């Protein structure tokens, strides 16, 4: 496994690429692939389950040597980590070395996982809500996850949770604040993401980076990253030029409406 300093540097690259990338979907693929590399895990993905025991899974990449959806379909009710997170409010990343398989049904399930060569798990809680519990999980055979694995998982959790929250806040704002007809088509031509349109719309209202960070519940540094990516996309070097060009292109209205929280 990798030292923490290298892992931090790699996550910074993931964050930079995610904030500057084109498109609206959360970057689960690069996030999970990075986590799998750091924890030497051949299977990494996201798993969500609800109070009724219904679960959904996606892996990056999807394994081809067993049926992951079939195996994960029983995890919500017989996996010890799923049972633990369902019964406790903790948000700490945990492994099957810390919460082990115990009862007869869990032992049977563990044997099934061992046959698939994924018996050792680390789960990283990302969100709890009306849709259930969402975790990112890594799986590997033979070698249990140790204390260093826990440190790397904790580091990853900070990044993943922050990015996920960032996506939710901006996506919720986009959904609740219709823009002028053709605005997103114009943004698409300029290769601006919906998140960048949100930030640019607030800039057009005259908000500072600090004020935008308060409204969107993100850091001023993240706002500045968005702005730098916007400048690059539009071929400008300052806010005034970016707003002027975006207004002419129809990306933002000449007089924008209220932003989040205002």
UniProtKB/TrEMBL annotation:
* UniProt keyword DNA-binding present: yes
Query: GO: which molecular function terms?
Result: DNA binding
Q: Which PROSITE patterns match?
A: HTH_LUXR_1, HTH_LUXR_2
SMART domains xref list: HTH_LUXR
Domain HTH luxR-type span(s) in chain numbering: 185-250
What GO biological process terms are annotated to this protein in UniProt? regulation of DNA-templated transcription
Ordered alphabetically, the record's keywords are: DNA-binding, Transcription, Transcription regulation
Q: Which domain of life is it from?
A: Bacteria
PANTHER family the record matches: DNA-BINDING TRANSCRIPTIONAL ACTIVATOR DEVR_DOSR
Protein name as annotated? Regulatory protein, luxR family
- Organism for this UniProt entry: Mycetocola miduiensis
């Amino acid at each position: 496994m990798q030292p923490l300093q290298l892992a931090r540097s790699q996550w910074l690259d993931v964050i930079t690429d995610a904030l500057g990338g084109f498109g609206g979907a959360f970057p689960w693929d690069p996030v999970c692939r990075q986590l799998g590399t750091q924890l030497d895990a051949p299977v990494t993905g996201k798993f969500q389950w609800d109070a009724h025991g219904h679960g959904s899974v996606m892996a990056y990449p999807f394994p081809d040597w067993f049926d992951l959806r079939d195996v994960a379909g029983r995890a919500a009710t017989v996996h010890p980590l799923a049972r633990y997170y369902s019964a406790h409010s903790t948000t700490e990343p945990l492994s099957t070395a810390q919460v082990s398989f115990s009862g007869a049904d869990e032992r049977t399930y563990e044997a099934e996982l061992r046959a698939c060569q994924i018996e050792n798990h680390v789960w990283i809680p990302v969100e709890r809500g009306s849709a259930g519990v969402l975790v990112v999980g890594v799986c590997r055979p033979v070698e249990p996850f140790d204390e260093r694995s826990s440190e790397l998982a904790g580091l990853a959790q900070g990044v993943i949770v922050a990015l996920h929250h960032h996506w939710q806040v901006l996506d919720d704002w986009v959904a609740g604040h219709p823009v002028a007809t053709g605005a997103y088509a114009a943004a698409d031509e300029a290769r601006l993401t919906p998140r960048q349109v949100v930030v640019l719309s607030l800039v057009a209202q005259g908000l500072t980076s600090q004020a935008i960070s308060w409204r969107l519940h993100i850091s001023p540094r993240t706002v500045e990253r968005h702005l730098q990516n916007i400048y690059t996309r539009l071929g400008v070097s300052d806010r005034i030029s970016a707003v002027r060009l975006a207004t002419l292109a129809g990306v933002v209205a000449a007089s924008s409406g209220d932003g989040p929280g205002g």
